[in-house]
Amino acid sequence: MTTVHTTNEVNLSAPTPNQDADLDLMALTMAALRFVNPWSVSTEQKQWTEVVPGSPEAKDRTITLAEVAHHDTPDDCWIVIYDRVYDISTFLDEHPGGGDIMLEYAGRDASTAFRSSGHSRMAVKALDRFLVGELPLQERLYRRPGGIKLSDIPE
């Protein structure tokens, strides 16, 4: 007759590698939930107040480059010139050089192209009627302390 000896001792204190990974994932999830309450997320969408180009409110509005980048179509064309944001959608057909050249810079900074094409002082003043806002201080190149200094940048 053969006898089989089995050990009745089972060590439950040492987790298997899979259990250890699950514990870490659970611990991280619980720690994250302490900082963020997923049930308190607001479903209200932020309503943007539309600023009429050239209005006095436009000078006080701050618009980031990321927001400007969303306006890059012929129907909704914004550009940045000397750290100011302009909505030139209605001007594309009127531009003496054609709308295509302006669409190349739609949603981007066009300061260098504007300066290098030799625009007159009248053209610089005409920009005021298209102004919708300014870039935040940390995204500016010209109108900030230590920024690029040019003598003919409009105030």
UniProtKB/TrEMBL annotation:
Keyword Transmembrane helix carried by entry: no
Subcellular location: Membrane
Keywords noted in UniProt: Heme, Iron, Membrane, Metal-binding, Transmembrane
Keyword hit for Iron: yes
Record Gene3D superfamilies: Cytochrome b5-like heme/steroid binding domain
Domain of life: Eukaryota
Example of a GO cellular component annotation carried by this entry: membrane
Domain Cytochrome b5 heme-binding: 60-136
GO molecular function, one term: metal ion binding
PROSITE patterns: CYTOCHROME_B5_1, CYTOCHROME_B5_2
Similarity annotation: Belongs to the cytochrome b5 family.
Protein name as catalogued: Cytochrome b5
Biological source species: Bombyx mandarina (Wild silk moth)
Designated gene of the protein: LOC114250134
